[in-house]
Amino acid sequence: MEYGVLAVVPPLITILLAVITKEIVSSLFIGTFSGCLIAAYGNPALGFGKMIDITVSQLSDINNIQVMPVTVLIGGLIGLLVRSGGSAAFTGFISARVKSRRGVLVLAWIWELSSFLTTTSVF
Question: What pLDDT, on a 0 to 100 scale, did the predictor assign at position 4?
């Protein structure tokens, strides 16, 4: 089944809503529902049923089950760092040492390289 340009609509809706409302979960829900609505040819009941079916099938996949606790723990750690002032302290630490645009770019490059190498298990 070919959806053509309609396949781009749900991600655009999701991104625009997330940027405008700053509500990520509701934006993801609405974007997912809009994709299922397109797949159900505009029928809201079938679209909602399709969304539930996809959600249940994805939540029952072992690979997704293994990733979810790690994602929740990382999100909790980030929330803890923000609430405790750790992110503000880190920002102050880096701001005192990096003074130029070039320094910021080099630091961002090193940070991303280390992040990429860590997530691909090269180390």
Answer: 85
The structure's pTM equals 0.60
Domain borders along the chain are 4-59, 62-119
10, 35 contact by CB (below 8 A): yes
DSSP string, the chain: ---GGGGGHHHHHHHHHHHHH--HHHHHHHHHHHHHHHHTTT-HHHHHHHHHHHHHHHHT-HHHHHHHHHHHHHHHHHHHHHHHTHHHHHHHHHHHH--SHHHHHHHHHHHHHHHHHHHTT--
Residue that has been written with the tokens 């803890």 in this structure: 80
The answer to whether 30 and 14 are in contact (CB under 8 A) is yes
